Amino acid sequence: MSHQQRKDDHVAHAHALYRERRINDFDHLDFVHHSFPELDCVAISLATRTRAFAWPFPFYINGMTGGSAKTLEINRQLGEVAQATGLAIASGSQSAALKDPNVRASFSVLRERHPNGFVLGNVGAGVSPTQAEQAVEMLHADALQVHINAPQELVMPEGDREFGAWLDNIEAIRARVGVPVVVKEVGFGMSEETAFRLRERGVELVDVSGRGGTNFIAIENLRRSAQEYDYLEGWGQSAVVSLLEVSPHMGALDVLASGGVRHPLDVLKALALGARAVGVSGRVLHILLSEGPEVLIETLEAWKAQLRTLMAMVGATTVEELRHTDLLIRGPVREHCELRGIDPMTYARRARSARHGG
Amino acid sequence: MSHQQRKDDHVAHAHALYRERRINDFDHLDFVHHSFPELDCVAISLATRTRAFAWPFPFYINGMTGGSAKTLEINRQLGEVAQATGLAIASGSQSAALKDPNVRASFSVLRERHPNGFVLGNVGAGVSPTQAEQAVEMLHADALQVHINAPQELVMPEGDREFGAWLDNIEAIRARVGVPVVVKEVGFGMSEETAFRLRERGVELVDVSGRGGTNFIAIENLRRSAQEYDYLEGWGQSAVVSLLEVSPHMGALDVLASGGVRHPLDVLKALALGARAVGVSGRVLHILLSEGPEVLIETLEAWKAQLRTLMAMVGATTVEELRHTDLLIRGPVREHCELRGIDPMTYARRARSARHGG
Amino acid sequence: MSHQQRKDDHVAHAHALYRERRINDFDHLDFVHHSFPELDCVAISLATRTRAFAWPFPFYINGMTGGSAKTLEINRQLGEVAQATGLAIASGSQSAALKDPNVRASFSVLRERHPNGFVLGNVGAGVSPTQAEQAVEMLHADALQVHINAPQELVMPEGDREFGAWLDNIEAIRARVGVPVVVKEVGFGMSEETAFRLRERGVELVDVSGRGGTNFIAIENLRRSAQEYDYLEGWGQSAVVSLLEVSPHMGALDVLASGGVRHPLDVLKALALGARAVGVSGRVLHILLSEGPEVLIETLEAWKAQLRTLMAMVGATTVEELRHTDLLIRGPVREHCELRGIDPMTYARRARSARHGG
Amino acid sequence: MSHQQRKDDHVAHAHALYRERRINDFDHLDFVHHSFPELDCVAISLATRTRAFAWPFPFYINGMTGGSAKTLEINRQLGEVAQATGLAIASGSQSAALKDPNVRASFSVLRERHPNGFVLGNVGAGVSPTQAEQAVEMLHADALQVHINAPQELVMPEGDREFGAWLDNIEAIRARVGVPVVVKEVGFGMSEETAFRLRERGVELVDVSGRGGTNFIAIENLRRSAQEYDYLEGWGQSAVVSLLEVSPHMGALDVLASGGVRHPLDVLKALALGARAVGVSGRVLHILLSEGPEVLIETLEAWKAQLRTLMAMVGATTVEELRHTDLLIRGPVREHCELRGIDPMTYARRARSARHGG
Ligand SMILES: Cc1cc2nc3c(=O)[nH]c(=O)nc-3n(C[C@H](O)[C@H](O)[C@H](O)COP(=O)(O)O)c2cc1C
Ligand SMILES: Cc1cc2nc3c(=O)[nH]c(=O)nc-3n(C[C@H](O)[C@H](O)[C@H](O)COP(=O)(O)O)c2cc1C
Ligand SMILES: Cc1cc2nc3c(=O)[nH]c(=O)nc-3n(C[C@H](O)[C@H](O)[C@H](O)COP(=O)(O)O)c2cc1C
Ligand SMILES: Cc1cc2nc3c(=O)[nH]c(=O)nc-3n(C[C@H](O)[C@H](O)[C@H](O)COP(=O)(O)O)c2cc1C
């Protein structure tokens, strides 16, 4: 099976497996409703920042594709959508283009269509620092995502089987490329231990990309005749759980979140849990493929407006203030917290503790 | 879209979305059954009181409508029902009449039909103190509801976007109008923090009006072609949760409850949680529109009789004694309590603690 | 509506509402499986005793009916079944016969058919001590059940409305009748507070008769055209919860259990929770009416054999030893325990504590 | 009913009752996903050991059948599968052959087809030490399973009813036979107390064989016309719960696990809970009967490959290292732990405690 075919498969299967309103861990998180927003909506700002960059909007189009004729067309449209909406956008893995110059255009089209926007490159944790540098150059990238996807590699027959050098390599990539590096999961989420390991290596930006949306084990199973890894489809933790897991490291790490984001309320919840910005892949792809780029642009503009509404509902004029809202962590997410030593209570009483303490 | 049309839409959509026995948080509350009522039913009284007024019955018809020809007819019937049953009744928001004198009759008909009854006016938290005064005069109102409905305003395209002055304004309204003021939610419930804010402003009466019955986000979504706020339909807390939330302030505040009340057992539960009286809107409207005023009067009379029966079952001769019954707070409501620092145990052992202590 | 008709209705509705394997609180109780019974089955005895009497089997046919031509026939068959199986049997409420001598035969037939067996009379808590004495005489009863059924009375249009004198009256009945008195619920269960009240009055025998089987609110609702008390059908606590509730009083009270018993495993569980014997009504009636007395006798004989099997499985040779088995109290029953201050843990570790302590 | 017929029935009913992906307690156990395996797959070894033996693979074909013409054929095929895959295999109960030499071949065929493999004999806890010795000889067995199956015996009309001597007898068997003895449940699981009793008798090897897969009460019920023990089909505890129960004795006992194992992820979970190896019966039988020995061999080879993949995902190069992975114990299993005094938290934080402590 050719590399191009694999890329087209990923897109087709992700699209086929997409379900609009699938229940996920965001549904186990509720805001406490306080009746008085104590603000006027005009004061609300959607801007967000990390130590490495500042964005006008706290959500972005996350890394997906490239590497074939079909995905060139998708990336062209995604680039245009990012340009029209002013959103940051990440590329899919550029490995193919690092090996085969013929498919470079399917990636560089992103930059071509979004010339002044924020574009993130994307490579796997196994590429050499030199290749990582080439990936950045290919897109004149503003930042580089380095994806870590061990479960996917392991389930792919043609996947990587050597993980021993990943952490060293990430350190070397960071040292070499001249742009900020985001270490990024691909839908399995992160743990406290993973964040700890990354901090040890000097990483300052992560994207926890959790379970509950695009499911790469399900996708790879569709690509195998026997589908023998169906029992693995629940693997990993959600963005919600991941944000709770990595929260002790949020001083040292700027955390981005993605995975299973369905609508602006999910964005709001991730931001309230401490994410600096929120990535969307599956839902963006779904709208693009089923309704086209115009509807996608309209939808993303509507998200911006709705996000302002939602910020008003919880009385926040800035993304930072969302981190002082009251969140109820329920059911299985609460159980996860209790088992892992994360206190779910403090999240439920942040406004009050501001009243008493701060 | 005209103001009249909006009022008719609200009624039509509330009616269409109504479900007779929808599960809600009242179902997560059980009384402990004690076999000996130790009373004779003749001794039971349904009377209730707050520091501001005394009512013969502990439930009332809550604020709904007015402002159009159709809603004039509804208010005429509601006024007659209140008159026949001796229940207190609240008006829907009088804003329309404050702007357009032509629709005043659709509100004043309430007082016309219920000349000696207890009638509550209703305005939004954004009206001026003078307008509030006019609203009271319009109905010769015995009290004034000031509704706080930020989520509804935000979801309405034509809604208010400035909330910064609401608390000051509520204080000014109270200072101006010569009748008791009830600050009232509209189906999203109240939090401890909201009660705290209101106490700070000298408010003494609130109606927590919680989630689980009429759902204004669902209603407003039906009015939008895109229905893009469907993910918000679970917003807010129930009357049950709200009563638990505000309970630390029940010394300073007299609390009324509404939202999702389906039958007399819900009334009993709200009273047992400390409500002084219980408002009903959706169910009243549903019976009126589907079965007419006669059946509504019969039903409300049956509620009185059933409420006596239920009080006998839990051994209470007065509404106050209901606050010493044993309540089991279960499942998601219990989880809410634990997360927010409310002790669910004491409610389950109130009879016993009377045995030991009082 | 005539008294006879009411009795026939109760039987017909109880039969119609019966469901063979309805989930109830017994399903929230599990034994810990220990692999070594450490006994030989021949050593197992089913005998049980209270301070008032000793029975060869730890289950009995609980109070049901009488008072009409149809129920005379049912009681005749039940008397024959009790005689054939050697089980104790209780009469339905004898109130009708105390007022109308014509229906006495429909009760006394029980004793006629079970001449040397253990027969319990049955009266309500409102009858006079003299009437209670007459009820005992009518059946040459070995004991007298005094039923307490406030919720049923309250839901019945023709029901009792005066409960103030019940406890005094129970004391007076006990003082007058020359046989042991069992104070008995009718499917709503007992609380710690109820057991406490009864102990205060010198009562030594109770039947907690809990929710989960025959449901008298559902039955009475079927008898009303409007069925307006449908929201009350979940009222009360189960036999399982009741046994946990009254356990602190098991030194002073001998506790019988009934309500929702479907099969011998439910009997075993009630005995393991401390019941001295276990009453069955709905299931007995169901088999009698749908399959006849022969099948009922076979079934009850099979229950004896199965109960021996089950006692072997948990390593108990006597009913008393069942009180040292390990029970897991789960889900909503566990929640009830936690809310009411009952420790569910000790029940799960009784074998172990015998190892360490006793 | 002949003994042969019973053996054929067991196979037929086990096959008929088998469900491919039935939910069981393994589903209440999740690994925490850590993104960095920090290993290369080539380093992974599947080998496992107990104090009594060492195996190249950590799963085995558990004891099933023999004793009739049909089961001879099954055992012939199972022996060939074990030979082809190099897996250890246990025989079904050899009691029949101890009484009737004509059926010996149906057991010894296992050894005949798997001449150099690891073969376990199987007898009940009631056989004499001499019979146990004969069973070992019959198979030139490398070890002997002594099964304990009180619930099954009790539900079988023809079953054993004397359990008083089982523990003494197990001690005597161990003293006599020259091979390691595995005391084994048959699908009802073990408790801490059972492990304690076995340790007292010097037993060093157990197979907890828990609930959730093959269900011998369901099978025996199918063999009875009345199926009167259907209420017992939930009896016992799962392999997951059993491993947690017996964990305090894992120093003195080497624990094998079986019962409800559906796929390699269940194997991984049992190993992570401390099992030295994992037995599979129902699933093996199902594949054999529905797809034949070739597919069974392919499947078991696939399990080996998948198990390596899974070990890589949790960063373990050896079976021992699996015992330091992070496991989330959820829902009903967590409740079991809390009720029985087992700490579910430590399992969720094993990697971290290695970071801090070891
Ligand atoms: C079609 C498709 C291809 C993807 N390819 C990549 C990739 O090459 N590199 C990467 O880091 N993530 C890739 N992802 C993962 C996403 O960036 C994201 O982590 C994951 O889809 C979860 O987010 P979602 O639930 O919003 O889709 C891909 C996702 C999709 C849907
Ligand atoms: C048709 C309709 C119109 C309403 N209009 C108002 C209003 O104008 N002002 C107000 O305070 N509440 C209004 N409400 C809210 C009710 O007073 C109440 O807070 C809410 O419906 C929850 O109670 P329920 O579940 O019993 O309907 C309205 C409710 C309905 C059903
Ligand atoms: C038809 C019927 C009539 C009953 N009548 C009486 C009665 O007269 N007195 C009484 O104490 N209990 C009466 N009961 C209640 C039973 O004794 C028992 O408390 C209740 O049915 C719960 O047990 P079950 O679930 O096994 O039916 C009656 C039950 C049935 C089914
Ligand atoms: C058809 C069949 C026959 C069995 N016979 C025996 C037996 O004779 N001795 C024994 O110890 N276990 C016997 N077992 C039980 C298994 O060894 C194992 O403990 C049980 O089936 C649970 O594992 P599973 O869920 O993988 O099937 C038998 C299982 C099956 C399916």
Automatic annotation (TrEMBL), chains A, B, C, D:
Binding site for FMN: 63-65, 93, 122, 184, 209, 214, 260-262, 281-282
UniProt-listed SUPFAM superfamilies: FMN-linked oxidoreductases
CDD domains: IDI-2_FMN
Catalytic activity: isopentenyl diphosphate = dimethylallyl diphosphate
Annotated InterPro entries: Aldolase_TIM (IPR013785), FMN-dep_DH (IPR000262), IPdP_isomerase (IPR011179)
Membership in a protein family: Belongs to the IPP isomerase type 2 family.
Biological function: Involved in the biosynthesis of isoprenoids. Catalyzes the 1,3-allylic rearrangement of the homoallylic substrate isopentenyl (IPP) to its allylic isomer, dimethylallyl diphosphate (DMAPP).
Name of the protein described by the UniProt record: Isopentenyl-diphosphate delta-isomerase
Species for this entry: Halotalea alkalilenta
